[in-house]
Amino acid sequence: QVQLTESGGGSVQAGGSLRLSCAASGYIDSSYCMLWFRQPPGKEREGVAGIDSTGRTTYADAVKGRFTISQDNVRKTLYLQMNDLKREDTAMYYCAADTVCSVPAGRISVHGYWGQGTQVTVSS
Known about the structure:
By secondary structure, the protein is mainly beta. It has no helices and eleven strands. The strands form two sheets. Strands 2, 4, 5, 6, 9, 10 and 11 form a seven-stranded mixed sheet that branches. Strands 1-3-8-7 form a four-stranded antiparallel sheet, with no helix packed on it. The protein starts with a strand and ends with a strand. The model has no long low-confidence stretch (mean pLDDT 95).
């Protein structure tokens, strides 16, 4: 059974940095895309970044140039390096694995898996 476990969230001042991690257990096919989503308070979940099986990355416009997605296939861990954080980055952050690599969609397919989330709070 696939399990995704996020960590690394916390509180930080605007302009600061955090690195989120997502540890995967169980079997995930190598063709799967790994993604980060977030859900700000009172808003819908939105896509943040994705990395496909070739290593190609995509980002939401709001985080381009500030966030970097990467993965360690040996350790089965997905990362999200977040720099120059802004108040509007405050959200619950979720990692996901899916057969479809679509950041703008803001959701995953029926074949995908979600983590439980980690909270990021940015204060000014």
